[in-house]
């Protein structure tokens, strides 16, 4: 069938066959399909959608458009697993979860991305570690995973290249939000990494890609059904992103917080709750643990014993970072020249923080230079915010709302304005607490 006929068929609301889906994706990879045709196909899908079989076929075709990692030669003595987050502010989970899972017997080959707009990117955070190379080749990446239990790299052109081309076109044609295309984009890369199971962290709230929990649940169901149909059992959690997850936001600051957490020097209730919830699901789905109580027990031991911290350090060194990053990061990392508290306005005294506009808090990091407004923009790893006040906290004039880490006074003032504008205060009795874990998807076979 000709490519225009495939587009027409989807435009008219008909289901595409597996052969037609694979033909289209093969054309994307070979450049037989033009950017205009990708845009037309994406817009047709936006209005007509895909059924589950089409989504699965699209995912597998995009996976097979490039290299699929084969781990048989490494003879790993544990399951290959990972998580994926839809992004938010202060989302430092990857740096905790990966070494924790490795310490529990799993292997985590994490292929991550950069930040854009108000969301931070795992690769940007890693590049704030002196020497860390996010561009290592596949062989080196696989060796570090086999030797330490996990490694994190950026996506290469070898893995799911059709997705890279299709996403670039969707990004400029207002078709990013289509669930079938989102599902195939995320899962094709995870399948290309050779995963045996996956847990999705779907953020919901004003700092997330999706603010509506019902729509997020539809995406969760799509991801879980397609991932499992493609041979990679997948489950999901909906987690709250109406406030930053970690106590910090900004590349260096988030790495420093992750290191301190792994070493046991500090804790963060929200960060721990989300990390442990995702880790439990990973351990159950992969078969490493039989039940939730066992999973919680082995996770706590992996953390308290220091094994997870040791694995983190070994992996960082394997990817080019310092051999003693746990103890030396604070001395070697870049620091912002201006580090100063932001105090609340006088009229806030005695009022409670009722609500945060988390997207605007993320944009405060962008205003400091720590995030991007367009792809390829350089960023300042040192800037960011720490010590956020949280919803429910009472404002006092001598207690900072946050500590701002800025390159200069102009950046400080720009971030300060955004932070103040992002906070809604009121009487303490009007505050209503929200759970950080909103909902959990369970595989159908888990019932009964």
Give an account of the 3D structure:
It is a single chain. The model has no long low-confidence stretch (mean pLDDT about 95). The strands form four sheets. A four-stranded mixed sheet has the order 1-4-5-12, sandwiched between helices. A four-stranded antiparallel sheet has the order 6-9-10-7, sandwiched between helices. A two-stranded parallel ribbon has the order 2-3. It has helices at about 5-10, 20-30, 35-50, 50-65, 95-105, 120-125, 140-150, 160-170, 180-190, 215-230, 250-265, 270-285, 290-305, 305-320, 325-330, 360-370, 410-420; strands at about 80-85, 110, 150-155, 195-205, 235-240, 250, 340, 350-355, 385, 400-405, 425, 435-440. The chain is α/β, with parallel strands linked by helices. It is globular, with a radius of gyration of 22 Å. Helix content is about 45%, strand content about 15%. The chain is built from 17 helices and twelve strands. The N and C termini lie far apart (about 45 Å). It has three domains: about 5-50, Transferase, Pyrimidine Nucleoside Phosphorylase, Chain A, domain 3, CATH 1.20.970.10; about 70-330 and about 440-445, Pyrimidine Nucleoside Phosphorylase, Chain A, domain 2; about 340-430, Aldehyde Oxidoreductase, domain 3.
């Amino acid at each position: 069938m000709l490519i225009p006929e495939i587009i027409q068929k989807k435009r008219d609301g008909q289901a595409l066959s597996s052969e037609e889906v694979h033909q289209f994706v093969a054309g994307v990879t070979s450049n037989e399909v033009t950017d205009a045709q990708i845009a037309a196909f994406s817009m047709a899908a936006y209005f007509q959608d895909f059924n589950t079989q089409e989504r699965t076929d699209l995912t597998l075709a995009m996976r097979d458009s490039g290299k699929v990692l084969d781990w048989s030669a490494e003879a790993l003595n544990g399951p290959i697993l990972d998580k994926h987050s839809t992004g938010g502010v202060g989302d430092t989970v990857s740096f905790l979860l990966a070494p924790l899972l490795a310490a529990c017997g799993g292997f985590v080959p994490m292929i991550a991305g950069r930040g854009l707009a108000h969301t931070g990117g795992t690769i940007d955070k890693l590049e704030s570690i002196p020497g860390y190379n996010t561009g290592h080749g596949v062989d080196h990446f696989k060796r570090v995973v086999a030797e330490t239990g996990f490694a994190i790299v950026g996506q290469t052109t070898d893995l799911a290249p059709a997705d890279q081309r299709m996403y670039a076109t969707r990004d400029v044609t207002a078709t990013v939000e289509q669930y079938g295309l989102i599902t195939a984009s995320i899962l094709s890369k995870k399948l290309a990494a050779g995963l045996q199971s996956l847990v999705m962290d779907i953020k919901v709230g004003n700092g997330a890609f999706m603010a509506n929990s019902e729509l997020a649940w539809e995406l969760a169901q799509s991801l879980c059904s397609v991932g499992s149909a493609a041979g990679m059992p997948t489950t999901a959690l909906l987690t709250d992103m109406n406030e930053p997850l970690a106590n910090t936001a900004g590349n260096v600051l988030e790495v420093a917080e992750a290191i301190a957490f792994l070493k046991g020097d500090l804790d963060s209730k929200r960060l721990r709750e989300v990390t442990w919830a995702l880790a439990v699901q990973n351990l159950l789905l992969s078969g490493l643990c039989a039940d939730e109580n066992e999973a919680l027990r082995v996770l706590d031991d992996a953390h308290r014993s220091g094994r997870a911290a040791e694995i983190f350090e070994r992996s960082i060194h394997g990817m080019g970072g310092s051999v003693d990053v746990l103890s030396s990061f604070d001395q070697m990392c870049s620091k912002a020249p201006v580090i100063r508290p932001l105090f609340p306005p006088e009229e806030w005294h005695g009022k409670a923080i009722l609500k945060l506009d988390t997207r605007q808090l993320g944009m405060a990091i962008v205003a400091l230079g720590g995030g991007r407004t367009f792809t390829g923009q350089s960023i300042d790893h040192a800037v960011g915010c720490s010590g956020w006040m949280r919803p429910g906290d009472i404002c006092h004039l001598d207690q900072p709302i946050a500590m701002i880490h800025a390159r200069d006074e102009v950046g400080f003032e720009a971030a300060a304005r955004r932070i103040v504008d992002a906070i809604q205060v009121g009487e303490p009795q009007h505050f209503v607490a929200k759970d950080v874990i909103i909902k959990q998807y369970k595989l159908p076979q888990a019932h009964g």
